[in-house]
Specification:
elongated, transferase activity (chains A, B), seven-stranded mixed beta sheet, CoA transferase (chains A, B), CoA-transferase_III_domain (chains A, B), formyl-coa transferase, domain 3, CoA-Trfase_fam_III (chains A, B), Rossmann fold, three-stranded antiparallel beta sheet, 400 residues
């Protein structure tokens, strides 16, 4: 496990000042791709180490965001701690942080100081609202970013409340974009020799996914209505009832709809004068739903998934996580992996969504014990054993 | 607009065989960052050109996914068309496609053929389920990927159906991941001199966002319940009623909750024996909600947003898109921009979520007219004017 990573980013050194969610996701992606990620933690550690259900004393939540990193414990409230950080940054390619805007400057690491220290350093920041504008000092949180970005407002039943997504999507999307911005800056640096600042705000990242909902708003001035699981413009579409539960069917255009109805022996619907246009079908939703449900109820979900997929009709089951993780496709795609803790148990976690055939993502390094990389990383940075021991005795660093 | 892009990816040439959503989002991100994106379209064009509300005959939906590209019309059903494509690929850095697995091979561009043509070429594929496994031939669609990935299953009210997100999140997240994988492969190529295949499946991308929901499942074997807009483990948290509507408040831990309640002059709750632990507060949700609502109803949303944010309590409004696009923070972050069509009107669209201070994302090129870049791109590839004219006469290319 300690051998150098072979991913496409091997040789890229990332100093990671992030904690909790958005930033750690960003740096884990970089680590999965082979970067050497050094996670700087305060003496008490990233708070997520103590969160979620523990397995043999180890947090699976922490593990799922921190594989492929080394942990260095450093007290940044002390001058000597900040001096160690500066020495690490002098040799690094990337710094990633997810403090509130202004915190880095209070650590003595404003833009000018960082440029002085290492003009090639790429400085990536993930935050809630961005570092300019009236909300710059507001605290951020995923639920709030979902609300402010317009994302919640378009989700949910027409007669129900706006609905958040349960996963912390704004944190995670910001983390992915930040990793992307970092790599763009690495490529740009080949030409300029200079690093630059990269910033992604959670609200902006989530807003960027509003796709045709935003273009329709710009074109019409109409705020999109919530439509639950139904398509706003097309019917039949949505959830239908089989013998043993529902399946989701996406008849996104007439050609697919025709195949769907023909597979159900309901092909006549498309030429029946009551239903032969989409507006008529939208108006006759309840009748059509009854017709379709009564046909589908006679067979199992598995039956319909087989014949409909074979007919080229996009369809699937609304899977819960137990079903997802038992799904042979998820297994074939290796979307569940195990990664060991440093000196601890191997835990199951999500796999790599980016598949590379030459230098694939891998578990290059275990989930780090708090401070488990401090001695090694400081030695690599040129600190001798005596100095390391003294810094540890003085509580500036933690050796784990 | 025709001057070379100045973004960090300037000089990177991307041949874009994608259409509709996931792939075009990937290549637009690369174009926003300065790559030279050549969108290969069939003679009838990307179907999205005809979708959504038209402004002066131009689709805002198409514009929002295709700025910063040049359009080349090429009939890939003809040998001569595929020959042009091969010539473009010989000099390119990246090919991006979002066909169903196997389609590229049917165009004569299987892995071996592409490697022969250009060993430095990075070949990125975005698809529904991945190119291995039992579902490889299934048609993909965002709604289905939301269902199959477990994402829908965790969203929605406890007593309601599983709830999709209205934006096509699985397409878009796959597109972002694909862009990230491409850039990692570009960086890896510096060391190896070789391109490689990059693949992102919509289901895998969305599954990768399941975060602590998945780690809790792995640790406990319990499928997470739907909790609507409420936090599964903490109360008070969620939507509360002000004089002029609701606000969202994320009291994610006791320290923030204390500040929230003190700001409402309800600080006594934290030491009242009925409410002094989180389990007691979870059990007394209805009472607490009434207490909080009755306090907050006396003042406007604006009032509470000001005082709560100042107190460090994450809170915000559930904004609809009209409110989002009127929000001064969104304006300060330049999240609405205008991009011109080639020979057409400028349209409003979403801005750039990745902020770079040295070589920022920009509208380097207009939204392309169908085939509006064919002549220019073929000339750059060494085709002389007579050959271009003949290919156009024969219907192999379209000059727009």
């Amino acid at each position: 496990m300690a051998e150098p990573a072979k991913g496409p980013l091997s040789g890229l050194r990332v100093i990671d000042l992030t904690r909790v969610l958005s930033g750690p996701f960003c740096t884990m992606i970089l680590g999965d791709l082979g970067a050497d990620v050094i996670k700087i933690e305060p003496p008490k550690g990233d708070p997520v180490r103590a969160q979620g259900t523990m397995t043999d004393g180890h947090s699976g939540y922490f593990a799922g965001f921190n594989r492929n990193k080394r942990s260095v414990v450093l007290d940044l409230y002390r001058d000597e701690g900040r001096a160690v950080l500066r020495r690490l940054l002098a040799d690094a390619d990337v710094l990633v942080e997810n403090f509130r805007p202004g915190t880095l400057a209070r650590l003595g690491l404003d833009e000018a100081a960082l440029k002085d220290l290492n003009p090639r350093l790429i400085v990536a920041s993930v935050n809630g609202y961005g570092s300019t504008g009236p909300y710059v000092d507001r605290p951020a949180f995923d639920f709030i970013a979902q609300a402010m970005s317009g994302f919640m407002g378009v989700n949910g039943q027409p007669d129900g409340p706006p609905m958040r997504a349960a996963p912390p999507v704004s944190d995670l999307i910001a983390g992915i974009y930040a990793a992307l911005g970092v790599l763009a800056a690495v490529i740009g640096r080949e030409k300029t020799g200079q690093g630059q600042a990269v910033e992604v705000a959670m609200v902006n990242g989530l807003l960027s996914l509003m796709a045709y909902l935003s273009s329709e708003y710009f074109a019409t001035g109409q705020v999109p209505a919530r439509t639950g699981n139904d398509h706003p413009l097309v019917y039949p579409y949505g959830l239908f009832r089989c013998a043993d539960g529902q399946i989701a069917v996406a008849n996104s255009h007439d050609q697919i709809l025709t195949r769907f109805l023909e597979t159900l022996d309901l092909g006549w619907i498309m030429s029946d004068p009551r239903y032969d246009t989409n507006p008529k079908r939208m108006a006759a939703r309840d009748e059509l739903r009854d017709l379709i449900d009564s046909r589908m109820e006679g067979r199992s979900r598995e039956y319909w998934l087989d014949v409909l997929n074979a007919a080229g009709v996009p369809c699937g089951v609304v899977q819960d996580l137990a079903q997802v993780f038992a799904d042979p496709q998820i297994a074939a795609q290796e979307m569940v992996i195990e990664a060991p803790w440093q000196d601890g148990p191997a835990l199951k976690m999500l796999g790599f969504p980016i598949k590379l055939d030459g230098t694939p993502c891998a578990v290059h390094r275990p989930v780090p014990r708090l401070g488990g990389g401090t001695g090694e990383v400081l030695a690599e940075a040129g600190y001798d054993a005596r100095t390391i021991a003294k810094l540890a005795r003085d509580g500036v660093i933690g050796l784990g």
